[in-house]
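Quick one, T. Sequence first:
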Amino acid sequence: MVTINSESKIAPTWFKSDRDESGDVEWLLKPLSGLEFMQVQSGASINSEGHFTYSGQAMRDALRFAIQNWKGFFDAEGKPIEYSQHMLNLVKQKYLVEVFNEIINRAFIREYEEKN
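Structure tokens:
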């Protein structure tokens, strides 16, 4: 018998960016579900040094699955910009790579915790 706890580790939590000099950028990240994790991992490969690399599609999928909201993004007039997947397309790569790495790290930690 397998018990599914629908509230187990599914609560989104905030991640504060280290790439932002002002310290204002934060991301609300939902843990990847099992199906989401499998989809992202289908875009992974291992390079000659034994490290995981991910396709652009896998990275995009992870960002779209996990990001629920953000803080610290403003328009030219200083008004906060509401999170949307469309607006995510305008974010600098340094933030996207950082948050992708956090999503993957959290996913692997979650898998490890479930095994132990």
